[in-house]
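[retry 2/3] gamma-glutamylcyclotransferase: previous attempt timed out, resubmitting with same input.
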Amino acid sequence: MSEQPDTRVEEARDVHSVPVREQGQCALRRFWNSPSWFRRAPPPKSYPPISSIPTTSPERLALASADNASPDTSAKTILYLAYGSNLCAQTFLGFRGIRPISQINVSAPAFDLAFDLPGIPYAEPCFANTRPRKIPKPPIPGNPPKFPPPPYSAASRPTWSKGVYGVVYEVTPEDYATIIKTEGGGRGYHDVLTPCFELPPALHVPEKPPFPDLPKPFLAHTLYAPTVPDLPDSPANQDEESSDDNSDDDGGDKDPRKQPWLHRLFLPTHRPDPDYAQASARYLKLIRDGAREHALPDDYRAYLAQLQPYTITSVSQQIGRFLFLFAALPGMLVVMGLGRLLADDLGRAPRWFGAATTAWMNVLWAAYDGVFKPLFGDGERTVPKEPEQRRKAKVVIRTDGSRSEKNRLLSDW
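[retry 2/3] gamma-glutamylcyclotransferase: success.
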């Protein structure tokens, strides 16, 4: 009989799972670490250049091979996959003070890059996250999609279908605890192991071209924040989802989306359309700078360059931003201060504190949806300004109307 393939390589594995309802703290930490109108950017710290970090050795990657029964216990260091702002040396080496032992550019085919982690409206609407990669199904002839087009132009949104590209840093357990602490104390993300493949270096002609071998995956830690999906809209989707739920091994757990509002208050902050929000220009610049510093593939950097940032385009949005941050600032200071005091040696905050932070984030977003967005405008996605020609047309029509009214009055007089 032939041996069965090892399926661990095909999916990410959860190694330090935490309850998904304790998610709000990571968004607050990311926002607090970013410069804003009430907090100036911290002075730049001296840190070594990216080029001074050596490449991870094949021996260390072999210890993290998917064929290894216990990749974590056989090595004294940790392989951490960075895909967001931690790509940038200013954030990872400067602000967080991490000193990687080695690094290597990789592709993680089990995940896709997404910006669906809610942040703070009007300032940092969303942050980078990973999403389990799904292979699209081919369209069925004669069966058009039943979903209406979104209110924004989805055709202009850049797409990427090759998985997550990033950098795997080899760090010490102490530095990894610092990463967890500065990323929300382990309450916003799941720490998972995902298979990674080394990316080839930039195109060049070597003196002795090596014989190409099949790529060998290795496992690295990364941070993944699961989201709560929408409720199914049609009975067919309900039947399909119920059949999927019955096939799971957990069985018996009630759907958290149908629980009372008090229970949903402690679930991760959920947005109607996870792909609607746009990241800030500051946050996208960190990711683009990190991709350039690590010389990630040109097509991936071109994809990052096409991502549109969130931009405030009206005075009402400026007022809404000021009022929202002014109202959220006291609670933010309390949460950030307690988070640093209550974190343990591994950088993780207590569960009760993570649940309280998640509830507070849900209250903030409920206030945005119910009050700030109707009064002051969109705080997640750029609203285009009124075209100049349309404004001129209005002026012309108004001027012509006033002249006709004047002529009519003169003729009557």
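[retry 2/3] gamma-glutamylcyclotransferase: The chain has one domain: 9-135+156-202+214-229+257-382.
[retry 2/3] clearing retry counter.
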